[in-house]
Structure formats: structure tokens, C-alpha cells
Amino acid sequence: MKINTIVLISFSLLSLAFFSCSKNSADIIKIGEFASLTGSEATFGISSDNGMKLAVEEINNAGGVLGKKIELITEDNQGKPNETQTVVQKLINRDKVVAILGEVASSRSKAAAPICQQNKIPMITPASTNPEVTAIGDYIFRVCFIDPFQATVMSKFALNSLKVKKVALLIDQRNAYSTGLAESFRKTFVEMGGEIVEEQKYSAGDKDFKAQLTAIKYKNPEAVFIPGYYTDVGLIAIQAREIGINVPLFGGDGWESEKLTEGKAKDALEGCFFSTHLSMDDPSPLVQDFIKKYRAKYNKEPDAMAVLGYDAAMLLFDAIKRAGSTEGDKIRSELAKTKDFKSISGNITINEQRNAVKPAVVLEIKDGKFKYKETIAP
Amino acid sequence: MTEFIQQFINGLSLGSIYALIALGYTMIYGILRFINFAHGDVFMIGAFSGYYLAMLFSFTTFTGGASVFMAVAILLASMVICSILGFTIEKLAYKPLRNSPKLTILITAIGVSLFLEYSGQLVFGADPKSFPTLLENKQIMNIGGATVFSNSIVVIVVSAILMIILRMIVMKTKMGTAMRAVSFNHTVASLMGININRVISFTFILGSSLAAAAGILFGLNYPKIDPLIGIIYGLKAFVAAVLGGIGNIMGAALGGLILGIVETFVSGYLSSTYRDAIAFGILIIILLFKPTGLLGKKEIEKV
Questions:
Q1: Which class for B40: exposed (0-12), middle (13-18), buried (19 or more C-beta within 10 A)?
Q2: Which residues in chain B are contacts of A270 at CB distance < 8 A?
Q3: How distant is the Cα of B31 from the closest Cα of chain A, in angstroms?
Q4: Of the given ranges (A218-227, A248-257, B276-285), which has the lowest mean pLDDT?
Q5: Which of A138, A340, A151, A166 is nearest to A254 (CA)?
Q6: For chain B, what is the mean pLDDT?
Q7: Which of A376, B27, B122, B134 is the most exposed place for a label (fewest CB within 10 A)?
Q8: Cβ B6–A214 below 8 Å, yes or no?
Q9: Distance between CA A70 and CA B120 in Å, rounded?
């Protein structure tokens, strides 16, 4: 009896091992994705994930890549850099993915990039704009512009369109995206003849910004630049209005989320501006077609992060096709050769620093909605 | 000068919230001689009760529908919910350990705290919620450019009223006398015919309801809540309680206000990078010179 049990257990273990092996050799290409599906910046991850899933569905319906189906393995990093490292290790070592897609937030992409570089797994980030992300190694790419460009855009916008010269900064001091964007903005804005009258800092997750905002108020700026994430910007705007700061607030693509104007933030942010990757008002058939497909699948409106997620996935599929192989170094060299790849957010040409060169748009917040204001080319 | 006034009001309203939470820490320490680390999370539950009650009474997260009567009703209802929670926590988690080493209860408190935080993430969701407008926030004063909004004043006034009521309960009622007796000596108090368990339960109810009030006031002033707000605010309030002299009610209130004002001034005039460093530095200096905290004396009434 006892021996029988042992035999039975070992047999079932064996068969389990057999089945898991056979699954690996099936006709699929595994692609890893890490995203902040939960945590405070969850809309970043959910949007880019939705975009990627849409791309995978489309490519599989069209017959897949190299005659194989794409399987997207998604891991939630809960918006934490250390969790990111764990899940990326898992994707590479256990799931044996051929490439990695992710993430929106620069600090998390920076945590994942060294691991991908080390394992020679190509990684494409949809929306991390901090320049250091792709500087980590030649396997790291992005399909969006970088912060120095975004800073130039907002400097030009502030001086020429808003017609303000005295600007105050409020920076998230523990966020690579925020400090990087602020630094670039400070440099270009002053070079173009503007003046930074005050600089204050906060940490993501703070709830009380009144002390910093009061200090800003008494320097009488004509506008306040807040290069933070939507999670804090809403609360900052509400408190800024309470303190009596009535000038426009403006920021970068970290503001892009349907949750930005939730609750009281809707009134507080009326007439404020931010730069981002594309506008959903763009009449081009590519964009409008994407919006239709997205609505049909998810029953909600896409944002720029969803588009970039879709674009990142599509660029990867294209590179695998061009490489004719799923080997990391071959995909990498094809990605690096990308020129005028047709994508929803504008044509992508990968430059020597493995960044995409693309124009940016400025959106205005009107009645809680994001309205197209202007396009600024590189 | 107006900047100074504005910063002072900012600090006072932040400090009032610290003070209300600190009272719970100090009372429970006074009675049981242990730090109830789950207290910050009771504060969080208070804020979320307010959020869901307001949703239930069909408040929108936008303006409109705000009335003083409803705001008070929600405040009181949340206080009741958290009282029940505090009472239950004590009965289930701490009472069975009454005679165990202090360290055991401390670890249990940390466990309860983690339990509340992560069940909160599970039940409420991890993403921050926009706290509804319970009271319309009107600009009521403008002293040479320093704008004062009604909610900051509401926070300060409601906190003051609650602290006065607490002081009356502790000093004037029979239960308050019993609380003070228990804080001196459990055994002697029980020999005098005081029901220790009832006094301890009552203390938890009192402390938790104040934490709930702090949660609602927090939501009024900083309308964004998430299941982890209890961690940092609980910690700050604990520091405030130690600063004022743990076990001392007036000390907790004073410590909270000082901490709030110091933090605001450091952020406003120096840099928020050093906010916590300087605030905690001041704490260390005060404790170096007065190890029992600002008002902590051996003879003073303790609860």
C-alpha cells in the first residue's frame, strides 16, 4: 500500500514535469510585461497593459509573428521598484520571455533595465521619459520622447503661449522622472529668458502641501510648474487654490490619467496645461481608429499611456518579424535600426541613444476633460 | 508677516489632526503601558467610514449636498464604527494577552496594524480615493493676503471641542476617575472595586472614536485617502505623544500641535527635504533634556 502511494506520487510528479516541458516547446513566443496594475499610480499600468493586450490580440488574429502566436505574460509590480526587480527576474529566468515591455514610470523602468541588459533581453518602455533609462545599456529602448525635449516644449509654451516669465517649481524629490524633468526645465527656461522665482519639494504620497505652496505664493509667480504624477497633482491643485494661488499650473505627461481631475481637483485644475505624447482629439484616422477599437474592447476612453503601450508592443512584433528570430541580440539590432515605423503616436525613428524622436502636444484641462492646445515639434 | 500667519494656520490644522490621534496612543499607554501600533490604522478606518457613509447618503465627490447636519451625523457615525472596531481589537487581540510579557502585546499590535492595512487594500482597493465634500470650503478671512478657509478652522475648532470633552470625561466623571486610578495601579484599583476590563474597553472606545474624528477631519482638509495613510500619520502622532510626555493627555495635544507647526515651518521656510529630519531632531533634543517629554511628570494625572 505504502509503496503504491509512493509510485503514484512519483508518477504524477513525472507527468507534471512532462506536461510543463511540452508547454514550453509549443508554437508560441513569450513576451514579458511588467506594469503597475495596482498601487497608487495604477492607471499608468492599467492603460499601458490594455494597449499591449489590444496589440497582442490584433497580431494573433492576423496570424501571429513568424507563424507563432504571441503570449503576453503580465506581472504586477504594485508600483514598487524592488517588486519590479523580482518580477522581471521571474519573467526572464522562469518564464524565459524573449523580450520585456514596461513600464510607464521611469523609476521602475530604471530598476528593470539593468536586469534586462545583463540577460541580453531587449526591453521597450512605452512611456518612461527620463533620459537615464535607455542610457543603462544597448538593449533598452523607448517609444516616447525624453524629458529634456518635454522641458523645452513646456518652456516654449510658458514663454510664448502663456506669456509668463516668472515661474515657481514644485518637485517630487524622490521621483527620478520629476527631478529629471525639473532640472531640464530649469535649464531651458532660464536659457530662453525666463526666471525661476521659487523651488519647493515634496515626496510622493504626502498629503499636506500647504507649507510649500504658501512659500510659493509669497514669491508671486505667474505660473507654477509641477512635474509630478497625477496622484499628487490633484491634491496639490486643491490646496494651491485654498492657499490663494490663482495662476495656471502646468506639468508633463505624468499628469495624464482619467483620475487627475477626480473630485474637487476638477475645479482646481480648470485652465491648467500639461504636455503629453498625443491628443485624443487628433483627427488622424490612425488615432480615431485606435480609439474606436479601444472603446469596443474595454468600454472606456483610451489615454496616451494606452496608445504608447500599443505602439511599444507593435514595434517589438515588427522587430521580431524583421529579425526572423527570437534571439535577444537579433531583435536588439533590428530595434536599433527602426526607421519611420508607422505607429499611432506618430512615426517612430530610433536614434543612437535608443530614444524615439517625436513631437509633443500640449493639452488644456477644460471642465475635467483634456483638450488639444498645440503641437510642438522637436 | 501674512506669510507667517498663513503658515501658522496651516501648521495648526495639521497639528490638530496629529493631536487627536496622539490622544489615543497616550491614553492606551497610560492604562496598559503599551504602544497600540494599530491606532494609526483605526484613524484610516475612520476616514474610510466617512467616505463610504457619505457615498451611502449619496454625497457626490463634487460640491453640492453638503450640509452641517449631515457632516456632523457622518462624524458621529464614524466615531461609533471605530469605537466598535477599537473595542473588538482589544477584546480579540489584546485581552487574551493581558498577563503575557509586554513584548508579546507589542508584536500583536503590529500584527493587527498590518492586518488592517492590507485588508484595507483588499476591501477598499489600493488606489487613493477622493474624499467627498462634506462641508463646503469657503474663504472666510483674508488678512492682507493670507487666505483662511473654513475647513482649516473647522479642523481646529472641532479638535479643540473634542479635547475639552475628553478632559471633562477624564476629570469629572466616575469612569474618568476609574481610568486615572487604573493608570496608577491595576491591582490596587481592582481592590477598590473597579472593573478593570470595563475601564480598559472604555479607554479603547474613547481613543478610537477620537481617531475616527481625526480621520474625518483629515479627509476634509486633505481630500485624498488610501489604506496606508495610517502608517505615517500614526507614526507622527506617536512621536507627538512621546514629545508631550506619553501617558499625559495635555502633553499629547501639545505635542501634536508643536509637531504640526514645526513641520509646516521647516517645509515652508527651509526645505521639505529636511522636514522629518528636523522635526525628529527636535524630538531627540527635547527628550535629551526632558526624558519624560514636555509635560510628562511622575505625579501628573495619567490616563
A1: buried
A2: none
A3: 32
A4: B276-285
A5: A151
A6: 87
A7: B122
A8: yes
A9: 36
Partners of A207 on chain B (C-beta within 8 Å) are 218, 222, 224, 229
Chain centroid, CA B78 distance in Å: 14
Task: Measure Cα distances from A353 to A131, A311, A335, A336, B63 in Å.
Answer: 9, 19, 12, 9, 48
What is the per-residue pLDDT for B114?
95
Looking at residue B61, its pLDDT comes to 46
Q: What CA–CA distances, in Å, run from B25 to A316, B10, B187?
A: 55, 24, 22
Report whether pLDDT(A26) > 90.
Answer: no
Backbone angles phi, psi at B273, to 5 degrees: -60, -35
pTM over 0.90: no
Which of B12, B117, B264, B267 has the most A C-beta neighbours within 10 Å, making it the best mutation to test the interface with A?
B267
Reported ipTM: 0.79
Query: What single string gives the DSSP state of each residue in A201-255?
Result: EE-TT----HHHHHHHHTT--SEEE--S-HHHHHHHHHHHHHHT--S-EEE-GGG
pLDDT in tens, A314-342: 999 999 999 998 899 999 999 999 998 98
Residues of B with CB under 8 A from a CB of A: 2-3, 6-7, 10-11, 14, 61-63, 126-128, 130-133, 137, 145-147, 149, 151, 218, 222-224, 226, 229, 232, 263-269, 271-273
Residue with cell 536614434: A351
A104-157 pLDDT, tens digit each: 999 999 999 999 999 999 999 999 999 999 999 999 999 999 999 999 999 999
CA distances from B166 to A50, B36, B277 (A): 52, 19, 32
Q: Do A242 and B218 touch (CB under 8 A)?
A: no
- Model pLDDT, residue A11: 55
CB contact under 8 A, B147 and A243: yes
Which stretches does DSSP call E strand in A128-227? Answer: 140-142, 166-172, 195-202, 223-225
Query: C-alpha grid cell for residue B116?
Result: 488592517
CA dist., res. B75 & res. B209, Å (int): 10
Confirm if B80 and B209 have CB atoms less than 8 A apart. Answer: yes
CB contact under 8 A, A203 and B272: yes
Within 8 A of B149 by CB-CB distance, chain A residues are 242
Residue reference for cell 487613493: B128
Contacts of B214 in chain A (CB under 8 A): none
Would you put residue A265 in left (φ > 0), alpha (ψ -120 to 50) or beta?
A: alpha
Helix (H, G, I), strand (E, B) or coil at B209: helix
The cell for A194 is 525666463
To the nearest whole Å, the CA of A202 is away from the closest chain B CA by 6
Q: Which of B1, B10, B231, B264 to mutate to test the interface with A (most CBs of A within 10 A)?
A: B10
pLDDT in tens, B135-188: 877 777 777 677 788 888 889 999 999 999 999 999 999 999 999 999 888 888
Sheet-wide strand order for A69-76:
A69-76, A28-35, A99-101, A123-125, A140-142
Count how many pairs of residues, chain A against chain B, have C-beta atoms within 8 Å.
Answer: 99
Residue type, B47: A
Which is it for strands A273-276 and A360-366: parallel, antiparallel or unpaired?
antiparallel
What does DSSP assign to residue B124? H
The helix (H) or strand (E) run that includes residue A53 is helix A42-61
Phi then psi dihedrals of residue B130, to 5 deg: -85, 115
